[in-house]
Design a protein that fits this description.
about 80 residues, mainly beta, 6 strands, elongated, single chain
Length: about 80
């Protein structure tokens, strides 16, 4: 995923799911994690996040302008570990 035009920061939500087809999940961060970077990526290990084997994760990335207003929202991306 490349940088979104005019975005100066991104927010990320990550949800943990024990079953992929049921919408019951646990939010990894208490609220959206916001970070000011040029690219919409994050190193989860540096943030202290330990992904669990056998679980599934839903990731959403929000592109935000310099005032924090949302410019775009990624589609849900599902990942299994």
């Amino acid at each position: 995923m490349g940088a979104y035009p005019d975005a100066s920061r991104y927010s990320i939500d990550i949800f943990e799911k024990s079953v992929p087809n049921i919408w019951s999940n646990k939010k990894i961060f208490g609220q959206s994690m916001t970070f000011a970077v040029a690219e919409p990526c994050i190193n989860l290990a540096e943030q202290g996040v330990n992904l669990k084997t056998g679980h599934f994760y839903v990731v959403q990335v929000y592109a935000r302008d310099k005032d924090g207003e949302m410019l775009s929202l990624s589609p849900h991306t599902y990942c299994g570990v």
